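Dear Dr. L.,

I hope this message finds you well. Following up on our conversation about the binding site, I have prepared a predicted three-dimensional model of the protein together with iron/sulfur cluster. For your records, I am including the exact sequence and ligand specification that went into the calculation, followed by the structure tokens. Please feel free to forward this to your student if that is useful.
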Amino acid sequence: MTPMSYSRTEITAEQIRHEQAVCDALRRRLTEGGTHPLALVDTYGCQQNEADSEKIRGYLERMGYGFTEDEYAADVIVVNTCAVREHAEMRILGNVGALVHTKAKKPHQVVAVCGCMVQQPHMAEKIRRSYPVVDLVFGPHDLWRFPELLQQTLEQHRRIFAVSPSDGVVAEGIPLHRQGSVKAWLSIMYGCNNYCTYCIVPYVRGRERSRHPNQVLEEARQLVLSGYKDITLLGQNVNSYGRDLEEPVDFADLLRSIDALDGEFRLRFMTSHPRDATEKLFDAMANSRHCAHQLHLPVQSGSNRILQRMNRHYTREEYLEKVALAREQMPDLVLTTDIIVGFPGETAEDFEQTLSLVREVRYDAMFTFIYSPRVGTPAAKMPDPISREEKQAWFDRLLETANGISVEKHHAYEGKTVRVLIDGKTGREPYTLSARTDGGRLVHLRGDASLIGTFQNVKITGSNTWALYGELQ
Ligand code: 5AD
Ligand code: SF4
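The resulting structure of the complex is given below.
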């Protein structure tokens, strides 16, 4: 397979060493006289952003920062943003604006805003003009040089904006500060080439870039050795993994090679584009030792007319065929999806098609969204005559249908014994522990916190729309 022609920029080991040297220099300065600087990293959006925040924290930790949740205590606040819907952007801007209060009390506080939202030129401009509280702005392509950007901000006493347009970079060797010790994110690729007409992601995260399989495998090996029990492989579209690499490797091959690692761990991945989800992938999942029988397969709409206008490259029938194939290989498959309601030009008839697809597939859980126009995307220019009220009414019906199905599916677990990974505390009596089934469903149970990080058999005794309740066996 010939690699696609675009400029994949590899950040060299030398460049990352330089950033680490900047961290070390900052550390000497910031911790002088025994002071302990504090940082707060606030993350919005998807798991890819969570993974990016682990890199930001990794750099900050190397600079000598400890972490706090208190914005009045933080010397540096980093807001890692999302651009996928307007609602997220409004919340972020409101929260960033409110930082004038903390900065008034702590004038040396540095406020940095990074991530997808600020990679959009109009948003970077908005922050430049209307949010003087922000000292540093950098996009996803500049994350690898966060240390030097923070150093400039601290030393030059001027605002720094690093949001240059880019097809995207691949940077290995950035230190990571992982959240938690049971579950881990593992990015296998970055960016997206699909250009669904509603979506901002390809514009802000660049073209698809796969990490080298040896790098991914080595990181997975380290995670297993360090005791992580649940590894989620991340990419905007994991099914196109490897297409841009020289070596002939695809996602199913990668999954198989990680599955060959010894140890007690569970392997998941997201997100899959239905067009590229293959029989080979389902086969690799079904015949693996570690891979959860769980698939997040966003359908977006049940209407062929809308799927075409969304540029999704599959029909309702093709999607249903893939679902049938996956379920044939894995009868216990837990299937989830994303759906957009009120795409421009969607009619009541199109919406009924979506409802009927949902009733036919019977997802275990669904993530539903009302369409939000994104600046610069093709859909934002399409006529959109349906009122917000009508879209909301469709949305409510969809949610009701989805919740009804989740209740029934959860109810069917009652009386059964399932294997779960106990992954944390709920903070609520009497079901103080939280856990996930192999398929990723949430379970609340009673037990001692020492069980966190262990696999256990649990008898399911109750359920609702969102969770299962169980007793240790
Ligand atoms: N409006 C509403 N929902 C969107 N999504 C992506 N872009 C938009 C948009 N412009 C949804 C899709 C995607 C999920 C991550 O967010 O359903 O799968
Ligand atoms: Fe993640 Fe997309 Fe939001 Fe960026 S815009 S944080 S890629 S969901």
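In brief: The longest strand covers residues 417-425.

With kind regards,
A. P.
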